[in-house]
């Protein structure tokens, strides 16, 4: 089937399973357009995908993420750069406040550095704060995190961020779709669906990362809390802890609880090994 027809179907205001059933009937573009499709949007998406860097997959295709198939209404299409996760990849969702204190930002960097070194692909958002700290760690280690976006991949929120050139991006939205509240919530559902578990690094009471935790729990995934501090920035962590979420100190704790391998750990003396710097702190990795 032509790409233009699938893109037109993706614009229909119908549940994904209905779109999929329509696509299986292989309708013509004219047939789909009669359902009320804006062909200008279809042409825009075709133009966006023609650059060779951006890719697309549709529900029912082999490369479509299996993690999404159990969702109530998974996205019909995904636009992405790089590669979607392969089968067998250990995926971990990491989230936290957009306005962390210095200690939490460094904790996120150190945790992400150790996790990525142990062949875990981190799933984060394109937001600032905790997520950004984790992305820095992955990029320093030359590992690509999976960044699930709350907007289209052609928006300045994405294109103006040079750091995102070094990651794999995924978006369930049209190229020019701006970041709106409902898209952020939808993004959280996809982020937690990708990960086998979710780690909340630092969250105040009204943090969006608590929505991530709720999404993960609704999907039957484990949620872990990374430490508890004595400021209001950790109030969300305390709430999750009171609800029964286990607390971890580092990746080693998480690996033990999930049964994941841990052959690389942060070195106690950064002067001995190759160095990674974040803010005013230095880190090294040691191999067992």
What strand order characterises the main sheet? 1-2-6-5-4-3-7-8-9
**How large is the count of helical segments?**
11
CATH topology of the largest domain, what is it called? Answer: Rossmann fold
Domain count: 2
Give me the strand/helix succession.
HHHHEEEHEHEHEHEHEHEHEEE
The percentage of residues in β strands lies in 15-25%
Would you identify the regions where 5 or more consecutive residues have pLDDT less than 50? Answer: none
Please identify the structural class as seen in this structure: alpha/beta
Radius of gyration: 20 Å
Distance, first to last CA: 51 Å
Q: Estimate the global geometry from the Cα principal axes.
A: elongated
Helix content: 25-40%
Provide the CATH top-level class of the largest domain: Alpha Beta
Could you characterize the architecture of this molecule?
By secondary structure, the chain is an alpha/beta fold. It folds into 2 domains: 78 residues, no CATH class; 198 residues, 3-Layer(aba) Sandwich (Rossmann fold), CATH 3.40.50. The chain has 11 helices and 12 strands. The chain has a 9-stranded mixed beta sheet with strand order 1-2-6-5-4-3-7-8-9, sandwiched between helices. Helix 5 links the parallel strand 3 and strand 4. The model has no long low-confidence stretch (mean pLDDT 94).
């Amino acid at each position: 089937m032509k790409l233009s027809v699938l893109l037109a179907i993706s614009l229909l205001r119908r549940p994904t399973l209905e779109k999929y059933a329509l696509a299986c009937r292989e309708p013509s573009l004219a047939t789909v357009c009669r359902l009320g499709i804006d062909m200008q949007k279809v042409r825009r998406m075709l133009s966006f995908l023609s650059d060779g860097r951006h890719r697309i997959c549709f529900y029912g295709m082999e490369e479509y993420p299996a993690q999404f198939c159990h969702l109530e209404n998974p996205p019909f299409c995904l636009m992405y750069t790089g590669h979607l996760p392969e089968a067998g990849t250990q995926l971990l969702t990491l989230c936290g406040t957009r306005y962390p204190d210095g200690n939490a930002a460094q904790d996120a960097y150190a945790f992400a550095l150790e996790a990525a070194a142990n062949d875990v692909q981190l799933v984060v958002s394109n937001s600032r704060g905790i997520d950004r700290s984790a992305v820095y760690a992955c990029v320093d280690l030359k590992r690509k995190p999976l960044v699930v976006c709350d907007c289209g991949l052609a928006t300045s929120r994405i294109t103006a961020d040079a750091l995102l050139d070094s990651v794999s991006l995924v978006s369930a939205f049209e190229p020019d779709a701006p970041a709106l509240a409902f898209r952020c919530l939808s993004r959280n559902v996809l982020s937690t669906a990708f990960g086998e578990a979710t780690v909340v690094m630092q969250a105040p009471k009204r943090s969006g990362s608590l929505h991530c935790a709720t999404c993960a729990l609704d999907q039957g995934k484990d949620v872990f809390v990374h430490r508890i501090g004595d400021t209001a920035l950790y109030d969300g962590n305390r709430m999750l802890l009171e609800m029964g979420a286990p607390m971890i100190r580092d990746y080693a704790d998480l690996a033990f609880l999930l049964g994941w391998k841990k052959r690389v750990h942060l070195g106690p003396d950064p002067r001995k090994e190759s160095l990674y710097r974040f803010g005013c702190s230095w880190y090294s990795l040691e191999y067992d």
